[in-house]
Amino acid sequence: MQYRRFGRTDLQVSVVGLGSGGPSQLGQKSGVPAAAAVRVVRRALDLGINLLDTSASYGESEALLGRALQDVPRDRYVLATKFHPAVHEAGKLTLRPAGALTQSLERSLQRLGVDYVDVFQFHGVAPEAYRPAMERFLSEARHAQEQGKFRFLGISEVYVNDGPHAMLRAALADNHFDTIMVGYNLLAPGVERVVFPAAQRQDVGVMIMFAVRRALSRPDYLVETIAALKDRGLLAADALPHDDPLGWLVHDGVESVTSAAYKFAAAHPAVSSVLSGTANLSHLEENVRSILGSPLPAADRARVLDLFGHIEECVVE
Ligand SMILES: NC(=O)c1ccc[n+]([C@@H]2O[C@H](COP(=O)([O-])OP(=O)(O)OC[C@H]3O[C@@H](n4cnc5c(N)ncnc54)[C@H](OP(=O)(O)O)[C@@H]3O)[C@@H](O)[C@H]2O)c1
Q1: Residue 65's pLDDT is what?
Q2: Which residue range is the domain that position 223 belongs to?
Q3: Domain presence at residue 27
Q4: For ligand 1, is residue 187 a contact (CB within 6 Å)?
Q5: What's 216's domain CATH number?
Q6: Does 106 fall in a domain?
Q7: Residue among 275, 286, 316 whose CB has most ligand 1 atoms within 8 A, to mutate
Q8: What is the pTM (predicted TM-score) of this model?
Q9: Tens digit of each residue's pLDDT (9 = 90 or more) over 73-108
Q10: Does residue 69 surpass a pLDDT of 90?
Q11: Residue 313: inside a domain
Q12: CB-based contacts of 110: which residues, under 8 Å, 6+ apart?
């Protein structure tokens, strides 16, 4: 495994992190039995993965991680969980009441079976929720941090609805956060211009989500996604073939489009760790091999940036 400095936390985190949310939620959404999900977490640790990301709102993920980590020395892993400061219902955003952060964190610690988490993150904060959430919860978070319930404070965006990454731009300007979690992939590399420079200037640890998602792991979704980009005028109609549009990335040690996508996400120097949201043992092993193997050839990376470099918004599912 390779380890990278996690920004100003000064922790060393594995360049591949294990995510327990996304479309898989550690297998809860894809019918993987709990015992098999626990085996995936244990295998991740065996492979040298030390960064584990979860959230109070990922179903039973925290409890599954807690089971897998029961007898693992606490200094062998970096645990990151999250709390949603606001709920979106029927198109309306409602801030959760004061005290909800403390309550959620206590429950997370109990389900994870630990005394503290390394990173506690505000989860999926929409641009319009950011200021009110800070007014209500920042001092509550600092109080929990002073009590030793977590070491570092982080924030993640709602990638799907925040094309210009407005929330993270505001959060980075405020400089409250030691880590951020941002959506980034080869179909939307614009983040390199709009988020990474500020993160690097402020020495913030960067976790990547949406590196492959379904669009870059399932050929049918990729065909649909590329067709939609053409329909919207974000890609010239003749820029890529309809069938197997990214097949040209697969050569010389790059075994698949998924492999190319994980390599792409890990290559940027602003990135501390790329989260892989899988509960499938062979996918996990394959993804680790992809990221640790040779990088995407420079000419292919250049062609990706040429085709998609202007895209900042979430175009994958
Ligand atoms: N706003 C937020 O804070 C937020 C939002 C989303 C995600 N996250 C965090 O980021 C983590 C990463 O999330 P993500 O969903 O964006 O991860 P991702 O790794 O880009 O996508 C995961 C999807 O890709 C599939 N996959 C992975 N490797 C594969 C392979 N080698 N071959 C075929 N399919 C493969 C998985 O299916 P299989 O299970 O079949 O492998 C799963 O459906 C989440 O787990 C969560 O911890 C945070």
Answers
A1: 98
A2: 3-308
A3: yes
A4: no
A5: 3.20.20.100
A6: yes
A7: 275
A8: 0.97
A9: 999 999 999 999 999 888 888 999 999 999 999 999
A10: yes
A11: no
A12: none
